Amino acid sequence: SAASDVYKRQQEYLPKDRFCRCHNSFIVNLFHIRRVSSRTIYLTDGRDLSIGRRYMEQFQDQFVRYLNQN
Fold first, then answer.
1. Which residues are within 8 A (CB) of 56 and not within 5 positions of it... i.e. 6 or more apart?
2. What b/e sequence results for 3-38 when a residue is b if at least 16 CB atoms lie within 10 Å of its CB, and e otherwise?
């Protein structure tokens, strides 16, 4: 979709070690994640984001790498 292409282009400009696509409609800054449960990301500002099924494995891999480097 056109919206998905916009997010894909935006993500190319963001540091890969700090930002991750977690849903068709969300790119998340890993620094602002308070906690993660099965399919939900809880942010430091109190908002919750769903993790899309097609992004789950990629998000988990990238978040673990982020946690291990910090």
1. 39
2. eeeebeeeeeeeeeeebbbbbeebebebeebeeeee
Alpha helices (H) along the chain:
2-12, 56-69
Distance in angstroms (rounded) separating the CA atoms of residues 52 and 65: 19
Provide the token pair at 65: 């790498």
pLDDT surpassing 90 at residue 29: yes
Model pTM score: 0.84
- Look at the block and give the residue holding tokens 């919206």: 3
Report whether 3 contacts 25 (CB < 8 A).
yes
At 3 the pLDDT is 65
